[in-house]
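Each lists sequence, tokenised fold; shown next:
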Amino acid sequence: MGKKLVQTYRDLVVYQFAFNAAMEIFEVTKMFPVEERFSLIDQIRRSSRSVCANLGEAWRKRRYKAAFIAKLTDCQAEATETQIWLEFAVRCDYLDPARGRGLYKRYNQILGQLVLMIKQSSNWTIQ
């Protein structure tokens, strides 16, 4: 059986990974202290969701290679920001270190997939 044709951003493996990771972050942050509601919780939820939102925008901008790459670069920045918030959550003892490492590694995978998409942007953009 061959690979499934990518027809929308939702079909992208990187989008699916990012969406699932963002949902896991949403769930784990429900356990964070209430005093973090307007700081760490909001920030990590926003950055993790922004990876997905920027992927959707990149998909729609693939007619223009530079715009496509710029949006994927935004995805990379948001994924890295998410990793930083994960480090804070672990260091503040809000997140179990093993779970934090697992999420951090997932974002490394997401970043790797984004790097490949940027390197192979000609395969993704509309000619």
Summary: The radius of gyration is 15 Å. The helical segments are 13-29, 37-60, 65-91, 97-119, 121-124.
